[in-house]
Amino acid sequence: MNDIKVAVLGSEGVGKSALIVRFLTRRFIGEYASSSECIYRKRLSIDGRQLNLELYDPCSQAKPSIVHLIRELHLGATKRDVDSVVFLVGNKQDLCHVREVSREEGQQLAAEGKCQFYELSAAEHYQEVALMFSKVVRNASLNGKAKDR
Ligand code: GDP
Ligand code: MG
Predict the structure, then answer these.
(1) CA contacts within 13 A on the Cβ side of 49
(2) Count of C-beta atoms within a 10 Å radius of residue 110
(3) Deepest in the core among 4, 22, 139, 141, taking most CB within 10 A?
(4) Is 15 in the pocket of ligand 1 (CB under 6 A)?
(5) Are 109 and 82 in contact (CB under 8 A)?
(6) From which residue to which does the signal peptide run (predicted)?
(7) Which pLDDT score is estimated for 145?
(8) Is any atom of ligand 1 closer than 6 Å to the C-beta of 3?
(9) Where are the beta strands (DSSP E) in 81-141?
(10) 51 alpha carbon – ligand 1 mean position (Å)
């Protein structure tokens, strides 16, 4: 399996586009067009395997309920008979002095939703952002390999 598709979902303004652009270009540019959806493509080499990554950046969504979203993602995967790879990511960690959701709440939600949990900052943490996306891609590709067998 050489194609990996990753969707970055969440409410408007949480920094979905900023995370994707940071991962792809290493840069944080501050303002991102939000009027239309975008699919970014990148070729990656993970563990010596060439992969085609598609990153889906939706145009802004209304406020989705995260619990509902996680449930829908797991359900969709079950219907297609694949294991879901869902990461719950809290962005803007540089603004943690005005945080509204505690790390513990995030961790608990991730545990209940069987997701991996990350807190990071598109503005300040290039390495963490790159690591997080790499893990998503690696998990998704291992998942595909397991299903191919
Ligand atoms: P989207 O609607 O989820 O795609 O959100 P955007 O990527 O357009 O980001 C919304 C706003 O949040 C923009 O003004 C970004 O500059 C800002 N932003 C995104 N990530 C961060 C971050 O990690 N830290 C801070 N301080 N601002 C961020
Ligand atoms: Mg956006």
Answers:
(1) 17
(2) 20
(3) 22
(4) yes
(5) no
(6) none
(7) 60
(8) no
(9) 87-90, 116-119
(10) 28
The span from the CA of 69 to the CA of 47, in Å, is: 30
For the chain (149 residues), the mean pLDDT of every run of 10, in chain order, is 88 94 96 88 90 91 84 91 91 96 97 96 97 94 63
H or E segment and range at residue 38: strand 38-46
**Separation of alpha carbons 43 and 105, rounded Å:** 35
- Round to whole Å and give the CA distance between 120 and 74: 24
Q: pLDDT value at position 149? A: 44
Tokens of 21: 């652009």
Cβ proximity of 99 and 105 under 8 Å: no
Phi–psi pair at 134, nearest 5 degrees = -60, -40
Ion ligand 2 — residues with CB < 5 Å: 17, 34
